[in-house]
Amino acid sequence: MAFSTQESDEVLSEMNVTPLVDVMLVLLVVFIVTAPMLTNSIPINLPKTEAVAPPDTKDPLVVSIDGSGKLFINKDEIQPDLLESNLQAAKAADAELRVQLQADDQVDYGVVARAMAAIERAGITKLAVITAR
């Protein structure tokens, strides 16, 4: 510590770190006290069960677009303007219909976008776009 006398008019250039240390210690105590309260763990012994297989789900309807832009539903070629009506008929037969869309990487984006729009207009909400890994 530097002591100054009345006779010297020099300004002390040392910083008083005591208040800083006090604040840091108070913060440390606050964090130590509140940290255990942040975890809301209740000890519970959960029962053990056997693994359950998922229920048998139907195979999804696969809409494919090959490199030349031809549309297929489950390996059956269809005309692009009939896609929506075929999907609506399939949706009427199965309310939980799932559709997988797979398109060749050389296909024009517009063809894929039109197919996706037809799927959406048919009322199908479960759509998966299949890609290669």
UniProtKB/TrEMBL annotation:
It is a single-pass type II membrane protein. Keywords: Cell inner membrane, Cell membrane, Membrane, Protein transport, Transmembrane, Transmembrane helix, Transport. It is found in: Cell inner membrane; Cell membrane. One of its GO terms (biological process) is protein transport. The chain crosses the membrane at residues 20-38. The accessory proteins ExbB and ExbD seem to form a complex with TonB. This is Biopolymer transport protein ExbD. It comes from Azotobacter vinelandii (strain DJ / ATCC BAA-1303).
